[in-house]
Amino acid sequence: MSSVQLPLTRESVLEAHALIKSRIHRTPVLTSTTLSKLASPGDTNVNLLFKCENLQKIGAFKIRGATHALARLTDEELQKGVVTHSSGNHAQALALAAREASAARGFNIPCYIVMPRISTPSKIAAAEGYGAQVVFSGSTSAEREAEVRVVQERTGALLVPPYDHAHIVLGQGTMAIELAEQATEDFGMPLDAIIAPCGGGGMLAGVAVACNGTGVRVFGAEPREGADDAWRGLRDGQRVDSVKSLTIADGLRTPVGLVNWGIISDKSYVSGVYTVSEEEIKLAMKLVVERMKILIEPSSAVPVAVALYNEEFREEIRNLARGKDVNLGIIISGGNTTIDKIIELFGAKN
Amino acid sequence: MSSVQLPLTRESVLEAHALIKSRIHRTPVLTSTTLSKLASPGDTNVNLLFKCENLQKIGAFKIRGATHALARLTDEELQKGVVTHSSGNHAQALALAAREASAARGFNIPCYIVMPRISTPSKIAAAEGYGAQVVFSGSTSAEREAEVRVVQERTGALLVPPYDHAHIVLGQGTMAIELAEQATEDFGMPLDAIIAPCGGGGMLAGVAVACNGTGVRVFGAEPREGADDAWRGLRDGQRVDSVKSLTIADGLRTPVGLVNWGIISDKSYVSGVYTVSEEEIKLAMKLVVERMKILIEPSSAVPVAVALYNEEFREEIRNLARGKDVNLGIIISGGNTTIDKIIELFGAKN
C-alpha cells in the first residue's frame, strides 16, 4: 500500500471512524444477565457488554480495516486495483470494500484475492460473489506471498495486508469508539475495560490505540493450544513470529504482526494477554449461541472464555472493581461458521 | 385476569409501549443483502428489515405481553400472584415479568407455572430460575387447565393467558411500533408491510392492531404441515379451534385464539395468511442462521420462508411495489433452541 501512514493515535482512529462510518454497520451491543453473572468473580459484579461484529457486513470486523485502508488511497493509487492473500474474512472484506469504493469513486477497482488451491469452494464463491478475482496458489505462506508478487507485477495492484498495517489497525480500532459510546449512551455503563481476541493483532492493537488515554483498560485473549504466541512473546520479551496450531479458533492461528507487536507489547496500551483451553472455548461458544441467540465463530468465544474461566483474569477484574461494578466490553469478532461446522464441533462423535 | 380490558386500538398499543419500554429491550433491526435479494421477485426490489425478538429478554417477544398484562393489574390484584399454563416462552416471560414487577412494586408477586410432568428439565429449570413455582399436570389441555383451576382455588392467583387476551395482544403489538420507527429513522426505509408468524395469534393480532390506519399491510405466516389453522379458517370463514401437528415450528402448534381471530379474520387488519412446507422452513432457518449470524427457533423461520418461497405471497409483494422498492418487515419471534436441537434438525441422519 501507499507509504504515507497515519500515526497510531486515538485521534487517527476517530478520523478513521468519521471516514468509514457511513459504509459500515454500527453493530449492536448486547448484554446477557446469565453470562454477566458467570463472569462475576466472588462478590464483584461484572456487566458484560458484547460488541457484535458478527452482525457486521461480511459477518466480521475485517470490513472496518479494509474500508479504511481503501479510503486512504488516492484514485490514482486505486486505478490498478488491490490484492491480498487470505482465505478468510479479510478476503471478503477487501472484495466488498473494493466494490463499494468502485461505486463511490465512479471507476472500477479490480480486486485480486490469492487463495490456496485447497480452499473450500464456499470461501472461493464468497470472494467471487463480491466481485473479486480469485488467484490460486500453494498453501504455505511463502507460496501465497510469491503469488501475490506475481499478481502485482502483472497488474500493478497494491497489496492490502490483512492485519499488519497502520490503516488496517486504525480501521479495526473504530469498533472501540462505538462500543464506548454505546456502553455509556445506551446502557449508562461507561466501560472500565475491553477484552478482544488476538490473532494477527490488528484488532487488539486498534482497540488499544482507540482507548489510549481514556482510562479504559485493554486485554487480549488467545487459545492456549499453540496459538498463544502473544502470551509467550510477552513472557519472553520477544515477538514470536510463527504459529503452528490446530486450535478450533481458526481465525487466531496467526502470529502477531510487527506493527501490532509494538502496541501489544506496551503495557500502557495492552494490560495483559490471557489464554484458555479448547474445551473452555467450546463451552463459551455454546453459552453465547444458546443464551445470547447469536452465531459466533470459535475465535469470538476466546475472550468470553477468558472472562468466564481464566482465574488470573478474573482476579485482575476483581482488582479493577474497588467496591463498584465493573463494565467489561467483549469483542465478538465474527460469525463466519456454518451449521455443518457446528455439527462437526458439537455433534455426538465429539 | 381483571375484567377491565383496553380496546384493541393503535392508541392502546402506543400506551402499552409507553408503559413497558423501560422494562424490555428495544431489539435491534437487522438487514441482509443476500436475503433481500432472494426475497425480491422478478424486477421488484424488496428490502427486508428483521425485527430481532430473539434478542429480546428471555429470547422471545413473549416478555412484551406478560410485562404489559402485569402493568395493567393493581397492587391488590397482584397480591395473590399470577398463574399460567405453558411450557414454552410464555412461562419464562411471566416468571421474569412477575419478578421484575415484584421489585418495582415493593412486594412479592408469586408466580405459578403449570407444566406437563413430561416437560424437559431445562424448561422447568428456566422457569424456576426466574423465581417461579412450577406445578405439574398431565399433558392434555384439559388436564393443564384443570390444574390451573386447582392452583387458583388454593392461592387466589390470577390467570395470565399466553395469547388470547387484549392486554397480551397489545403488549405484543409494541414490537411493530418500534420496528416502524427503526425502519424509518435508522434505515430511511419506511415500512410497506410486515409479515409475522401465526400460532395462537397474539403477536399477529397485536402487530395488525398497531399498524391499523398507518397504511402498513400486515401478513401472517404458518407451517403448512397441520398447523395452517388460520389459513384454513380464512378459507372456510370459520375459526379452527384445534390443531394437531408435529411441525418443526413447535411454537406454532396452536389454534388461533378467539380474541385474536376477531382481528386476524378481518381483511382490514390482516391482508392474508400464507403457508410453507417443513423443508422450506428448514432452508430459511439455515439461511438466517448462517447469513445473518443469529440463532432463531424454527417458528421464526416461517415468515422468512414465506417471503423467499411462497409464490402467491411474492406476487402480492410485487403488486405492492408499483415501480419502487418494497420495505418488508419480518418478525423474528424468538431464538429458544439449542445446539443439540440444531444437530437433531440438521445432522447427518436427517
Automatic annotation (TrEMBL), chains A, B:
<comment type="similarity">
    <text>Belongs to the serine/threonine dehydratase family.</text>
</comment>
<dbReference type="GO" id="GO:0030170">
    <property type="term" value="F:pyridoxal phosphate binding"/>
</dbReference>
<dbReference type="GO" id="GO:0000287">
    <property type="term" value="F:magnesium ion binding"/>
</dbReference>
<dbReference type="GO" id="GO:0003941">
    <property type="term" value="F:L-serine ammonia-lyase activity"/>
</dbReference>
<keyword id="KW-0663">Pyridoxal phosphate</keyword>
<protein>
    <submittedName>
        <fullName>Tryptophan synthase beta subunit-like PLP-dependent enzyme</fullName>
    </submittedName>
</protein>
<dbReference type="InterPro" id="IPR036052">
    <property type="entry name" value="TrpB-like_PALP_sf"/>
</dbReference>
<keyword id="KW-0456">Lyase</keyword>
<dbReference type="GO" id="GO:0030378">
    <property type="term" value="F:serine racemase activity"/>
</dbReference>
<dbReference type="GO" id="GO:0005524">
    <property type="term" value="F:ATP binding"/>
</dbReference>
<dbReference type="InterPro" id="IPR001926">
    <property type="entry name" value="TrpB-like_PALP"/>
</dbReference>
<dbReference type="GO" id="GO:0018114">
    <property type="term" value="F:threonine racemase activity"/>
</dbReference>
<dbReference type="GO" id="GO:0008721">
    <property type="term" value="F:D-serine ammonia-lyase activity"/>
</dbReference>
<feature type="domain" description="Tryptophan synthase beta chain-like PALP">
    <location>
        <begin position="23"/>
        <end position="312"/>
    </location>
</feature>
<dbReference type="Pfam" id="PF00291">
    <property type="entry name" value="PALP"/>
</dbReference>
